[in-house]
Design a protein that fits this description.
two-stranded antiparallel ribbon, 5-stranded mixed β-sheet, globular, 13 helices, about 375 residues, 3 domains, Nucleotidyltransferase, domain 5, alpha/beta, single chain
C-alpha cells in the first residue's frame, strides 16, 4: 500500500520532462500495482516481461524512487560516502555559491553541484529523500539562508529599522520583480490506457509565453501596485519605479529592494540624483526573504497563478490585475516582528551549527 506522498511522487515522475521514459514507465508499473492490476496486465501495458515487473517492484520496495533508476552492471552498488549527505545538508542551510547564480537550491541543482564538485554521482531523488528525512524545505519562501554579504549586519539594521520604526510621515515601499511568469493552458484529455476499458485523466500543458511581474508593496497599508512587462531590464524597472512613487509625490520615500544590476543602472542613479526625496535600501545579498513584497509574490502565486489556466499572456495579465484590485479592496499590512538583533543572533547560531557539521564530517 502506497502513501499519498508516494503516489504523488510517482505521478510526478511519470509526467516530468526531466525523467527518462524508462524511469517514468517503471513508476507507472508501481502505480498500476497499487491500483490492484494483475501482473500480466501491467506487463502488457508497460511492454515488459513479468520478471521485469517483479524486478522494478522489488527495487522500489527496497530503495524507493532511487531504485527505479538504472545502475551500471558489474560490481555491487557502492554505498554513498558518509561525507556526501553531510555536505548536502550543510550546503542546503547556506546560500548557494555566487558562481551558481542560484537564489536557492532545488534537488536537481544540488545533485548536479555535488556530482560536479565532489566527483560522486548523486541523483535528485537522493537529495529530495535526504531533505524529507531532515525536514528541510529550501524552496519554501521564508527559508532562512546565510548571506555572504560583508555588509550583512548594516543592511539588516537598515531594512528592519524601516519596518519597525519608519521615519515620521515617510512612505516605505517594498519592490521587486517576479520574472518569467508563464501563461499555461491546462487541458485534460482522456487517454485510454487499458485497451479502451479504463480511461485516466492526465494534464496536457500548452505554454503561451511569459510576462515579468513588477510589484511594490506599501509597507504601512499593505496596498500593492503592480504591472507586467515583456522584458526585465533597467528601463522597465525605472518605468515601473516612476509609476510606484507617483501616488506619493512630495513625500519622503524609502524603497526596499534587492541587489540586481537592473536596480543600479546609470539611468536609475541619475534619476535618484534628480529625486533626492527617494532613497534606496538594499537587502543583503542572498536575503530576498527580507523584502516584504516576496511574501505577496508567494500569496498571488498560490492563489491566482500556480493552478490557473491562461489561454494567452494577455489573459494571464488580466488575471493578475484583477487579483491586485481584489487584494487592494481589503489590503492589510504584513506584521514584521523580528528585530535586527533577533536576525543576527539566528545567523550566528546557524553559522556555528553549519561549521560544526562540516568539521565533524571532514575528520
Amino acid at each position: 500500500m502506497l502513501t499519498d506522498e508516494q503516489v504523488a511522487e510517482l505521478r510526478a515522475v511519470t509526467t516530468s520532462r526531466d525523467v527518462s521514459g524508462a524511469v517514468a514507465n517503471r513508476a507507472r508499473i508501481v502505480l498500476w500495482t497499487a491500483e490492484g492490476r494483475r501482473r500480466k496486465e501491467i506487463g502488457e501495458l508497460a511492454g515488459v516481461s513479468l520478471p521485469t515487473v517483479d524486478r522494478w517492484l522489488d527495487r522500489y520496495a527496497q530503495h524507493g524512487l532511487t531504485g527505479l533508476e538504472e545502475h551500471k552492471r558489474g560490481a555491487g552498488r557502492e554505498q554513498m560516502p558518509a561525507h556526501i549527505p553531510a555536505r548536502i545538508l550543510a550546503l542546503t542551510r547556506t546560500t548557494p555559491p555566487v558562481e551558481t547564480g542560484l537564489s536557492h537550491w532545488s534537488s536537481r541543482e544540488m545533485a548536479a553541484f555535488i556530482t560536479r564538485t565532489e566527483k560522486v554521482s548523486v541523483s535528485w531523488h537522493y537529495v529530495a529523500k535526504l531533505w524529507r528525512e531532515n525536514k528541510l524545505l529550501p524552496h519554501r519562501q521564508g527559508t532562512f539562508k546565510i548571506s555572504r554579504d560583508p555588509r550583512f549586519a548594516d543592511k539588516v539594521f537598515d531594512v528592519v529599522g524601516l519596518y519597525l520604526d519608519p521615519p515620521a510621515g515617510a512612505v516605505v515601499l517594498s519592490l521587486d520583480e517576479k520574472t518569467q511568469v508563464q501563461a499555461l493552458d491546462r487541458t485534460q484529455p482522456l487517454l485510454p490506457i487499458d485497451f479502451g476499458v479504463t480511461e485516466q485523466r492526465t494534464h496536457d500543458y500548452k505554454r503561451h509565453g511569459t510576462t515579468n511581474l513588477f510589484a511594490a508593496l506599501d509597507v504601512a497599508t499593505g496596498a500593492v501596485m503592480a504591472d507586467c512587462y515583456p522584458q526585465r531590464t533597467g528601463a522597465e524597472f525605472l518605468t515601473f519605479l516612476r509609476k510606484a512613487v507617483k501616488p506619493h509625490r512630495g513625500k519622503e520615500i524609502h524603497v526596499v529592494l534587492d541587489n540586481l544590476s537592473t536596480h543600479d543602472t546609470p539611468e536609475v542613479r541619475q534619476w535618484l540624483e534628480a529625486n533626492p526625496n527617494i532613497t534606496f535600501h538594499f537587502t543583503p545579498v542572498g536575503s530576498s526573504w527580507m523584502n516584504q513584497i516576496e511574501i505577496w509574490f508567494g500569496i498571488i502565486t498560490r492563489q491566482a497563478i500556480r493552478r490557473g489556466t491562461f489561454v494567452s499572456v494577455n489573459h494571464l495579465i488580466q488575471r493578475i490585475r484583477a487579483y491586485v484590485e481584489h487584494w487592494n479592496a481589503n489590503a492589510e499590512p504584513f506584521v514584521w516582528t523580528a528585530t535586527a538583533e533577533d536576525i543576527l543572533t539566528k545567523v550566528r547560531l546557524v553559522q556555528t551549527n553549519v561549521k560544526k557539521l562540516v568539521q565533524n564530517n571532514s575528520k
